[in-house]
TrEMBL record:
Full protein name: DUF3618 domain-containing protein
Protein keywords: Coiled coil, Membrane, Transmembrane, Transmembrane helix
Transmembrane regions listed in the UniProt entry: 106-126
InterPro entries: DUF3618 (IPR022062)
Record region (Disordered): 1-21, 76-100
Compositionally biased residues, Basic and acidic residues: 82-100
Keyword rRNA-binding assigned: no
Pfam families in the cross-refs: DUF3618
Length: 148
């Protein structure tokens, strides 16, 4: 080995090594070079990096969706329980039950039904009269035309 080779950092093969050791060293260097080439190829492959990032983002969104769904389920359950409790409380109040009785006692439904029936009768009878007038006027017109 010369002093220039030592300064440049090159590794020269010593002649005292046996061939099997040299073969093993060559195989090790080839493996390291293969790994290095694969790493460089992975860094240079933008499409694969983008796909990996998309998959990573999809996984994160799926996890967030599952978490949000669980949270909504818990919130809905607690709100349902609160609403049920509040409904029971309101039903137990005496003024609510009195108001309910008052509304059912003074409900306008019978009057509304009677008004609707009366309106229906007027429309049906009025429609018959209109049709009768039209028919009689048509008959008169036909008679006049027939006389000419």
């Amino acid at each position: 080995m010369s002093s220039d080779d030592a300064k440049k950092g090159s590794t020269a093969v010593e002649p005292t090594k046996d061939p099997d050791a040299l073969r093993a060293e060559i195989a090790e260097i080839r493996a390291e070079l293969g790994d290095t080439v694969e790493a460089l190829a992975a860094k240079a492959d933008v499409k694969a990096q983008a796909q990996a990032k998309v998959e990573q983002t999809k996984d994160q969104l799926r996890e967030k969706a599952v978490h949000a769904k669980e949270q909504i389920g818990h919130t809905a359950g607690s709100l349902r329980a609160k609403a049920t409790d509040r409904t029971v409380q309101l039903r137990e109040r005496p003024e609510v039950s009195r108001a309910k009785d008052t509304l059912s006692r003074y409900a306008p439904w019978p009057q509304v039904a009677a008004g609707a029936a009366a309106t229906l009768v007027v429309l049906v009878l009025g429609g018959r009269k209109v049709r009768a007038r039209r028919a009689s006027s048509t008959r008169r017109t036909l008679r006049k035309v027939g006389r000419r």
